[in-house]
Design goal:
By secondary structure, the chain is an alpha/beta fold. It has 16 helices and 10 strands. Helices cover 49% and strands 12% of the residues. The strands form 3 sheets. The chain has a 6-stranded parallel sheet with strand order 7-4-3-8-9-10, with helices on both faces. Strands 1-2 form a two-stranded antiparallel sheet. A two-stranded antiparallel sheet has the order 5-6. The protein is elongated. It binds tricarbonodiimidic diamide.
Length: 383
């Protein structure tokens, strides 16, 4: 348990969860230890102390190995509980063996010795964890930008790159391409906020955060332009069409008080971009009142002023703001490549169909590719 303590912030960052949530890997581990202790008495009475004691390290080590490769907080916490149950076998059974095998006068001192030995591991654990956390090259899941070797264009130097995409390879021109991240706002993605209050499962959107962070990191490192958008309205709601306000007959709709301020109103905490994908200074943020990012915004002018002709599109939701924006862009002559694992929908079937609509009919609205294909595309030519 204690080896993990120094690296909890790193794990939280990697799994893109809050500092509070990552503490569950400690709290629920302790619950696992507490609950597990009740198991071992009856089990070892039946199967024998020694054989039960020998089986528990396998559970501990096996669960530990799975924990090391967990890609979600739910998996990590679950396997940590299993690990705790394995780990507490030693705590209970060692004492049971001491009690069973000691003469009445010496049980207490042998028990004390056992406690001293067993407290060594939690004592040393944090120091070992700290060392491992600082180990160079520790990241088990490096972003493509770090792994791209000499054979890859890695988008740097303005090389044309060929992205393996559907319906056919996309010729990416990094000097004239921009990553556009659509509406990754707290109102849509945070648990307990507007999107969730509408009955949606926000985890379907949140699964895009890690790949989008990696893509963003690769794109920033390569010097491509990055543009962010936010859906929302003026505080006086003068730009909110009554038809949009009325839609859904919601108890708490746009402009009304929500868990993170007034819903989809500019300047409110919920309207802002999630911290994990927050814009860097200098990256434009387009505030849009509609679903499409071109409607009633200066996005088109901004792209033209920068000589951008290709959009790498990510964000939420696939079938609403992403699709609308891609259609608008298409009619304005931009080439769009939509990053499949970096767009999300509350509805899996719309996610699938939203992507299929883009790439159907020979790419009627554009291309679709996974983020790794975009960020590590091999060069079109090598001179
Ligand atoms: N950004 C965006 O997609 N706005 C929405 O309202 N999406 C829904 O899916 N509701």
């Amino acid at each position: 348990m204690h080896i993990l303590i120094p690296v909890l912030p790193l794990v939280a960052q990697e799994l893109v969860v809050s500092p509070g949530k990552i503490q569950l890997t400690i709290t629920l581990y302790l619950f696992g230890i507490a609950g597990g202790q009740l198991l071992y008495g009856p089990v070892s009475d039946k199967s024998g102390r020694r054989s039960t004691l020998l089986a528990t390290p396998a559970l501990f080590v096996g669960a530990g190995a799975v924990a090391g490769w967990a890609t979600s907080i739910a998996t990590l916490v679950s396997v940590r509980i299993v690990q705790a149950v394995g780990g507490c076998g030693g705590l209970v059974l060692d004492r049971a063996i001491v009690r069973d095998s000691s003469a009445s006068g010496e049980a207490a001192s042998r028990m004390a010795l056992l406690t001293i030995v067993q407290s060594l591991a939690p004592g040393i654990g944090p120091a070992v964890g700290g060392l491992l956390g600082a180990w160079p090259g520790r990241d088990p899941r490096p972003i493509p930008e770090q792994t791209a070797g000499d054979n890859y264009c890695d988008l740097k130097g303005g090389n044309m790159a060929i992205v393996e995409a559907e319906p056919y390879p996309f010729h990416l021109d990094p000097a004239h391409a921009s990553l556009v991240i659509i509406d990754v706002q707290r109102d849509f993605l945070e648990p307990g906020d507007f999107g969730a209050a509408l009955g949606n499962d926000v985890s379907l959107l949140r699964r895009t955060i890690v790949p989008t962070r990696r893509l963003l990191q690769a794109v920033r490192a390569a010097g491509l332009s990055v543009i962010h958008t936010r859906e929302g309205h003026r505080p006086d709601l003068a730009d909110l069409p009554p038809a949009k306000k009325a839609r859904g007959r919601l108890v708490a709709g746009i402009g009304d008080p929500g868990p993170m301020g007034r819903i989809l109103v500019r300047g409110e905490p919920g309207h802002d971009i999630i911290p994990e994908l927050y814009p860097l200074p200098g990256e434009p943020v387009v505030d849009k009142p509609g679903k499409g990012a071109f409607h009633a915004t200066d996005l088109d002018a901004m792209l033209k002023n920068r000589g951008i002709a290709q959009l790498i599109v990510s964000g939420v939701t696939t079938e609403v703001c992403v699709n609308t924006t891609v259609r608008e862009a298409n009619d304005r002559g931009y080439e769009c490549i939509v990053v499949a694992d970096c767009v999300g929908s509350y509805f899996p079937e719309f996610e699938e169909m939203g992507l299929r609509m883009i790439k159907a009919q020979g790419g009627i609205f554009g291309w679709v590719a996974p983020s790794e294909a975009v960020s590590a595309a091999p060069p079109a030519t090598r001179s």
